[in-house]
Structure formats: structure tokens, C-alpha cells
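User: Can you predict the 3D structure of Iron-sulfur cluster carrier protein? Sequence below.
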Amino acid sequence: MTSPANPDLTRRLNAALAHVQDPELRRPITDLGMVADATAYDDGTAAVDVLLTIAGCPLRNTIVDDVTRAATAVDGIDSVDVTLDVMTPEQRKALKDQLTSRTVPFTQPNSLTRIIGVASGKGGVGKSSLTVNLACSMAAEGLRVGIVDADVHGFSVPSLMGITQAPTRVDEMILPPVAHGVKVISIGMFVEGNQPVVWRGPMLHRALEQFLTDVHFGDLDVLLLDLPPGTGDIAISVSQLLPESGLLVVTTPQSAAAEVAERAGAVASTTGQKVVGVVENMSWLELPDGSRMEPFGSGGGALLAGRLSEGLDADVPLLGSVPMEPRLREGGDAGTPLVVSDPESAAAQEIAAIARRLTHTPRGLAGMPLNVTPS
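Assistant: Sure. Here are the predicted C-alpha cells for Iron-sulfur cluster carrier protein:
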């Protein structure tokens, strides 16, 4: 015989479920219409029916575990039976309409997301590694962070973040995988093995546009774009699709590298973007005796910041100098960024300081239309 339902216990059960987030959408499952029914009974048992967005939801076990943990944390509930079902096409459409639009959400007047494109003049300066470590450092500080791997031909962000799963699709909507608290999308998630992407300008633009319109990032504090080296098609597309984005320029200490990187930053004079700063990577190597060796020379970051400040007639600061560290490379190979695996290391500490300098100004309403009419 089934024990009678307990209204007060049921109310507290539903309140607890409101704190369970969908692991991909990062929204409460109650807000998303994923809880079809939740009832608690006098004998201390409970039953929760959860609707998945798709039958093959890759994180279904995570949802079951999170629901079970939240339900059994309610005083008076000793066990819970979680039943999984799948949304109907109508329910999926309602969810999609609730979450998405065919516009770039980051360009809407009410968007407070800070957008930063991480650029370099040439490859091999550690731009992608810096991007993922900055993102993870910001996420560790409690910010909501996303990465768009815009380097379509040379994508590397999924492996650097340890992401092997494909994004979940809900009809045309794409849910980005989450790693180390960061939402990530990359063309590398859609190709088989290590196949090259052989695309020209219009296709590159369309891919970036789809990442920004069809991928549901939700409300982000910071969106980082790992840009391809140089000043090609993607750099132009970013300026068109995200005109309010800023540029963070990465160089090595070598003066020749700084000269090349200057071109990547100087593109802002044409696109109208702001260069938010310069980062000098691979600045030095600390030897066992505590001394420093500078394999690539010194001063390139300061030289680049000075040239960009002069050329753009704006203050372009040198935000930091990141030392060479074998563990930085090891973390990239293992899919665990250094700021996660060894946050106390010298390189991780410097990256964390750069992340704070990039985000120290709170998101605000300055310059945004408030649609308020004085009376």
C-alpha cells in the first residue's frame, strides 16, 4: 500500500529541486520544465519524474545524482526514486523558444557580457594555452565564463580543456560542454579524429556566426575568443559580429615577435575595437638555483604595449609577463590547465593576476539604454 502524500514535505522537496541545475544549460531544472512531477510521502520516500531534453543525454547520470542528493538532503526524506523520461517535441520547442533567438545575444542592448578576443601576430606564442588558463582562473573566482575556439583551422581548446564529449543538440540549439566551470565550443567537437578543416572565408564567417547564435551559453560574465594568428577572415568577422569586443594581444619577449604582434593589435584602428592590453608569454625560465634564463630575450611585451599605445592613441597596458614552466605544457597535454592543477605555481599566479586585471571593473550599465522616460 502506497503511503499518503505529504504536502509540506512535497513543498520542501520542490524547493530543494529548484537548486538543481541542468549540467549543460546551467539553469535550475524546475525553471526549464524538466521536473514533470515531484512528490514526497509520509513514510520518508519520494518520487521525482525528470524530463531529459533528448533521449541520449550524455549527462543523465549527473542529473540523477544531483536530484538524489538534493532530495535526500530534505529533512524527512530518506530515499528517492528518480524516473527519467524525454521531452515531447512540443516541450522541446517551448524550451528552445525560452532560451534562444536567432540573433547574437552578446550584441543585445541588455547584454553585460565582457567579450575579449585573444589575438597574436603569429602561432606558437602560447595564445590558446593562455586563453584556457585565463578562462579557468576567472571561473575559479566565481565568474560565468565561456570560450569560443575561433581558430577553426588550428583548433586546440578541447584537448587543452580535456573535453572529449560532443555538444548536445536540442533541435537547432547546441549546448556547449562544460569543463572546469567553463562552457566551451569548438569546430574540433564536430570533426572526426584529427581531420583538417579546409574552409575559406565565407564558411569561416558562417561557422563563427553559428557559434554565436545557435550555441546556448546563457548569461555570461566573460566570453573569451581564441582567435587564429594574424589579421585574416576571422578577425574581420569578429569585428562585424561582436563590434564591442576587445582584443588581448599575446607576444613573446623577442622584439621580432612583438613587431608581428603589433599588426594583430593595430587591426583595432580599422575595426573600431579596443585593445585591452598586452600579455608577454614565455618571459623567462627559472633555473634550479633560482636564477632566471631568458631564452627569447626580454622587453618585447613592453615594446609592443608602447607601440600600440602610440599607434592607437590610447593606453594599452602590459598586463603581465608569464614565465615558461614545464607544468604549463604538461597541463595542456593532460587536459587540465595549470591554474587548476597547480594554482600556486609562478605561471598560474601570474595568469590569475592578469585575469583579475581584465575583470576588475564590474559589469555596469554605463552607456546602455535603460528605456526610462522621465515624468
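Residues 105-359 form a domain with the Rossmann fold fold (CATH 3.40.50.300). Residues 127-140 form the longest helix (14 residues).
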